[in-house]
Design goal:
The chain is built from 17 helices and 13 strands. The chain is α+β, with helices and mostly antiparallel strands. The chain has a single domain, classed as Amidase signature (AS) enzymes (Alpha-Beta Complex), CATH 3.90.1300. Helix 3 packs antiparallel against helix 4, helix 6 runs parallel beside helix 7 and helix 11 packs across helix 12.
Length: 465
């Protein structure tokens, strides 16, 4: 296997190669550090690269491999989004308003290290993770490896760009309103937002008023399943044999609904290519033996402006209050926080009390089907700098029209995944989104693996790679 194929092999395959002795942990780590040094000046996917620490960890991992240890990710390098604590590093949230360096790992990082993973660095985010584009006054713009004039998406944009360009085999992301699924779509990756609380978020508690979850951006479905097996809460329902076992066999005949409408009051682009991808997926799934129908989700009229956005804005407000230097935030972020400050504790409590009712209405579609498929996004990624000098409300309205299909499933908390579905007319990746019943990541992973086997995407590589 040559060095480029190795860089793009994915975490599960690299773990197998490390165990067999076909590659060493120091050599694999150096491969990524060399690629980062060469490609990062253009991409800016990492906020910080932890080269010396990674080299020390790789040497230790190799000694453990030589001693016969077989931890699932032993010797595999990974990247961590810069909203998650890594001991000894700043967690900047895309801003110079944060600090100082933290003294302990977040729980998910602790679990990844326990599985043997080596941390290459922390990936770039937009300020306070607000936007589906990764640009900040403090750290500049992250660029899409498929087209450097475009954003990779956000807020896990640095993680998406790094994995797409072969600068990490997989990366940790977070998702409060689509922040894993949007960059996974626009970077040509697999991304899954797990069930709320599946992956521990400590020390973060109720991020964005309960909307936020942690999950992976990967090259393969197998890698995503491996991540969930390593990090997932074992007290929550999971498939027999773990999530990797769920990917090993195609699902039994499923009932699948194709849904095209965005939630009410959210203006959405109507790009025919994105909608065609969903219908093409329906055709494929019929060929694979599944029952496929078209049926729209019954979103409540008040779901977006009465429930989603107040929680999101209030979540940003709460996060800003915890910063040591909030005066350093850019004007647009302060605008979002000011709006969030208008959401009182009493109003927030009433909104949270209504979640069960809204979730029941949205999930009524699962009385008749097992999986719902929507477009991944409504259109392709924007140009870098497209929203510069615009205010908070104008920017939110404009970006929401590109990505209207994700955030409602943060409200309900159920799992949703995106998988690559070809390239659009501009040569940029598209995806379809698979939405499952609460706690049923297993069906999404099994169905995703079946589609991946029929339409493999992992060897598709971007221009900057």
């Amino acid at each position: 296997m040559d060095s480029i194929d190795l860089a793009f092999a994915g975490a599960a395959e690299q773990a197998r190669l490390l165990r067999s002795g076909a590659v060493t942990a120091p050599a694999l780590t150096e491969l990524y550090l060399e690629r980062i040094a060469r490609l990062e000046p253009e991409l800016r996917s990492y906020r910080v690269v932890m080269a010396d620490e990674a080299r020390r960890a790789a040497a230790q991992a190799q000694q453990r491999i030589d001693d016969g240890e077989t931890a699932p990710l032993l010797g595999v390098p990974i990247a961590i989004k810069d909203d998650t604590d890594v001991a000894g590093q700043l967690t900047t949230y895309g801003s110079n308003a944060a600090g100082p360096a933290v003294t302990a790992d977040a729980e998910v990082v602790t679990r990844l290290r326990a599985a043997g993973a080596i941390i290459l660095g922390k990936t770039a985010v937009p300020e306070m993770m607000v936007w589906p584009f990764t640009e900040s006054v403090s750290f500049g713009a992250t660029r899409n490896p498929w087209d450097a004039s475009r954003t990779p998406g956000g807020s896990s944009g640095g993680s998406g760009a790094a994995v797409a360009a072969g600068l990490a085999p997989f990366a940790l992301g977070s998702d409060g309103a689509g922040s894993i699924r949007i960059p996974a779509t626009w970077c040509g990756l697999y991304g899954i937002k797990p069930q709320r609380d599946r992956v521990p978020t400590a020390p973060m508690v109720d991020g964005w008023c309960g909307l936020a979850t942690l999950g992976p951006l990967t090259r393969t479905v197998e890698d995503a399943a491996l991540f969930l097996d390593v990090t997932g809460d074992t007290a929550m329902p999971r498939p027999k044999g773990g999530f990797l076992a769920a990917t090993a066999h195609p699902p039994q005949r499923l009932r699948i609904a194709l849904s095209f409408k965005a939630p009410p009051t959210i203006t959405a682009h109507r790009d025919p290519e994105q909608r065609a991808a969903v219908r093409q997926a329906g055709d494929l799934l019929r060929e694979l033996g599944h029952q496929v129908i078209e049926r729209e989700i019954d979103y409540p009229t008040t779901a977006a402006y009465g429930h989603l956005l107040p929680r999101m804005y209030r979540g940003v407000y709460d996060a800003v209050q915890a910063l040591p230097h909030p005066e350093r935030l850019d004007t647009r972020t302060r605008g979002v926080a000011r709006i969030g400050g208008l959401v009182s504790d009493a109003r927030l409590a009433k909104i949270l009390a209504g979640e069960e009712r809204i979730s029941a209405r949205i999930n009524a579609i699962f009385d008749d089907v097992d999986v719902v498929i929507t477009p991944g996004t409504a259109t392709g990624p924007s140009k870098v700098g497209a929203y510069r000098r615009l205010g908070a409300v104008t920017t939110m309205a404009m970006v929401s029209a590109r990505v209207p299909f994700q955030a409602m499933f943060n409200v309900t908390g159920q799992p949703a995944a995106v998988l690559p579905w070809g390239l659009d007319r501009a040569g940029l990746p598209m995806s379809i989104q698979l939405v499952g019943r609460p706690y049923d990541e297993a069906t999404l992973l099994s169905l995703s693996a079946e589609i991946e086997a029929d339409r493999p995407w992992a060897r598709r590589r971007p221009t900057i790679s």
